[in-house]
Amino acid sequence: MSEDPASLPSPSWFVRPAARAWRCAPAPTAARAFHAALPDYAPTPLTPLPGLAAELGVGQVFAKDESCRLGLPAFKALGASWAIHRALAERAASGAEPGPVTLVTATDGNHGRAVARTARRLGHRAHVFVPQDVHPQAVAAIAAEQAQVTGVPGPYDEAVRLAADAAAAPRALLIQDTAWPGYERIPGWIVEGYATLCAETDEQLRAAGVTGGPDLVAVPVGVGSLAQAVVTHYRSRPSGRAPALLSVEPQSAACVLASLTRGAPVTVTTGETAMAGLNCGTPSSIAWPHLRHGLDAAVAVSDADTARAAARLAALGFAAGPCGAAALAGVRTMLTGAGAAERRTALALDATSVLVLLSTEGPAANPHAPTAPGAVPPAS
């Protein structure tokens, strides 16, 4: 089923407080030790932003800074590195002929670069399919990792289809960060890799004196794999505080919001957006059950909203690309303006609440220029 994002209400949002009562099985923990053993691993910062807390009328706001993760300017390397490790180990255990393989994927930018970097580091090849409207600098960054890059004159979903076709070749492996029936094992490992980010956040909150955990976590969403990891992390706890979980998408590619509103996964026709990494039209099949049951709220934001959020973060000394700044843009939409009191009540937020914004990329990951008045351009 296909939906037109233009048919969604503006501002577009969805709230379901009952999600806090839903529980799921915890994620496997092996990825954390794997990441910790990598030579360039270090936990990314969790930055307190007291100025934002005052503006939003809450107790504390923290932003998880993924602008330098395993040497790359976005969080995606966590999932790609773990999934590639697992896929190559499984291939070797199956008795496959040893030697280099080609790791194939489609990307809006960050995942493809992470796959290409990991392939180069391990002595393998990478073939990355890139849809239209990905910035040329992001494409060049993938090619600089010695990957073969194929441009696709269509949207992300078409690039995924072509990557899956190419991965049918001998000595090729598809390393895709979205799932569909029949292809779910490797995307599941990618989600497991993202759990490292969540575990770090818990530890950093405790170190900051927040012993009960956050009251709300805002996560930018494309196909929903990171959101699946976040839902799994917080909804697998048998007791203790259950935070509200908010997904944030571009208005031009709000497939999760449309699916939640419909009550079933739908595909939306995507448009242009500066939030290139979130420009996805179909939720991941393995993410959808977690998103449907575990998300408290979903919101869609405009490029102008995100540019203003990036500018505000920059004024506070925090660098975020459009996708990373989407978390703040979504929180602003939910907690301010007409109807904000109702939404705050639904999210169980008050003047003492602790908010965590997952800033999934730095400006270097996505060189799209801001479009809001007063927004600052990204660093080159």
Layout of SSEs?
Layout (H helix, E strand, L loop, with lengths): L1 E2 L8 E4 L14 H7 L9 E3 L1 H7 L3 E6 L11 H17 L8 E5 L3 H13 L2 E7 L4 H8 L4 E5 L3 H11 L5 E3 L10 H23 L8 E5 L4 H11 L8 E7 L4 H8 L4 E2 L19 H7 L2 E5 L1 H13 L6 H14 L4 H7 L7 E6 L21
Parallel strand pairs: 1-11, 4-13, 5-6, 5-8, 6-7, 9-10, 9-13, 10-12
Antiparallel strand pairs: 2-12, 3-4
Helix pairs in contact: 3-4, 3-7, 4-5, 7-8, 8-10, 11-12
Explain the overall architecture.
It is a single chain. With 380 residues, this protein is of the alpha/beta class. Helices cover 38% and strands 16% of the residues. The protein contains 13 helices and 13 strands. The protein has helices at residues 30-36, 50-56, 77-93, 110-122, 136-143, 156-166, 185-207, 225-235, 255-262, 288-294, 303-315, 322-335, 340-346, and strands at 2-3, 12-15, 46-48, 60-65, 102-106, 125-131, 148-152, 172-174, 216-220, 244-250, 267-268, 297-301, 354-359. The chain has a seven-stranded mixed β-sheet with strand order 2-12-10-9-13-4-3, with helices on both faces. α5 links the parallel β6 and β7. α3 (77-93) packs across α4 (110-122), α3 crosses α7 (185-207) and α11 packs across α12. The longest helix has 23 residues, at 185-207. Mean pLDDT is 93; it is low at 369-380.
Query: What's the helical proportion of residues?
Result: 25-40%
User: Based on helices, strands and strand pairing, what is the structural class?
Assistant: alpha/beta
Largest sheet: 7 strands, mixed
What series of H and E elements makes up the topology? EEHEHEHEHEHEHEHEHEHEHEHHHE
Average pLDDT rating: 93
Broad shape: globular
Gyration radius, rounded: 19 Å
Low-pLDDT residue spans: 369-380
Q: What gap, in angstroms, lies between the N and C termini?
A: 40 Å
Number of distinct beta strands: 13
Tally of separate helices: 13
What spatial order of strands do you see in the largest sheet? 2-12-10-9-13-4-3
- Content of β-strand: 15-25%
